[in-house]
Structures are given as C-alpha cells and as structure tokens.
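Quick question: what would this complex look like in 3D?
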Amino acid sequence: MAIIGSVLPVNVQSLRPPLDLAPSREMIAPKGPAIPAPSGGQFGEIFEKMVSGVEQSQARAGEVTRSVLLGDNPNLHQSVIAMQEASLSFSLMVEVRNKVVEGYQELMRMPV
Amino acid sequence: MELLTGIAATGGALNSQRTRLDIIAQNIANARTTRGPDGGPYQRRIVSFESELLRSTDSANGAKSPGLATVRVSGVTTDPTPGQRVNDPGHPDADAQGMVTLPNVNLAFEMVDLITASRAYEANLNVAKNSRQMALKTLEIGK
C-alpha cells in the first residue's frame, strides 16, 4: 500500500518536463477559490488505515464465526452479518485499489 | 468503517425473534407437562419486546447519524390463566378427586405464534440481504 503512495508522486515528478511551465499553468488554472489541501495526510497513510480496518473486520468475523461453531454463541445471523461486512469492506478496498492502479497506468500511458 | 448502516437494528430484531422462537418451542415441547420444578403443571411463557436506542455514531465530518432504535427482549412472563382440568385418576399427578391440571398451552395459538415469529425473522433477513445488495450495487458505480 505504501508502495503505491510513495511511487506515484515520484513518477509524476519525474514526468514533469524541465522547462518552466508557470505561465501556461496560470492560464489553465481555474479562476475559482483555491482548493484546500486535504488534511487527512498522505494517500498511503489513509489506504493503510483502510487496509487495517478491513483486516480488523475480517478478524472480528472470524472470531464470531468461531464462537458460533464452538457453541458459545447461538446467534448464527451475527456470524453471517459479520462475514458480509468483512466481504463488503474488502470489496470496497479492492475497488479503491483498482481505481488507483488504473489512474497510475493512465498517467504512465500519457505521451509527454 | 460503517458500510452496512442499520444492520445493527436488524441484528437486534433477529436476536429477539430467535428468542421468541425458542420460547414457542419450549411451550410446544411442554404442552403436556403436568409437573414442573415447582410441582405444578407447566405454565405458558410469553416473550415481550422493547425498543432500545443504539448509540449514535459520530462520523468524522461531524454529521450525526440518526439514532436508530433496535429491539430487545424485555422479559419472559408467565401466562397466569389456569390450565384445563381432566379426570384421570390413574395419573401420578392426579389430586384426591382424580383430576389432573394440564398446562395452559393451546397448540393452535402456539402454531400461529410460531408462524408469525418465523415470518418476522424472515422479514428481517430480507432487510439484511437488501442492505448488502444496496452496498454492492453502490460499489458497481465505479465499474
């Protein structure tokens, strides 16, 4: 996860041509108010948090399922719901990862 | 990460309906039990529910989710109506007049309760299924 977060900015930097682009950037810059920088830290950090969240929900699902199978918990639905939650958060994570990789590949294909 | 909102309320309802099914099973199983731990015939049990507020989850952007109310079993009470008395002098639990008091369980009522409880459980299962499908469909936006 940290790989994508750290590799991406580096390659974008290296893609930038050495000539001064300041005037043209001013021309294409939107006239609206400046977009504030995100306060949540690096994308890598956020994604790492998300992965650990997914891991936690999977561990919780495993725990509940084990307690149902061992007979400590008679509520079968709790185990199934926990598994569904884990599977959904995993799907969301995969979706985010796919989007990031897609964006990266799109950038790499860009002719400079 | 709260992906399946409202599933906690459904989970509580599933718990409660399952308890109700258990109690109905107990009533049906003891429909002819003439001696309990207290010496008397079995008395029918009734499950009652009460709503319970879930703690509201404060998300990062300060927006409060509506305080959902789930359901829990408030108690299991005993039906005090007297049971049917039949004449059976040979029964070990017969009194001096040869009368035996049967439990106040009416199998027809119990079967109706069984069907309502099982349908209510099914309805809540459908809510859970639907909220999962909604989340999956939402994920398909990005595809």
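Answer marked as accepted. The mean pLDDT of chain B is 88.
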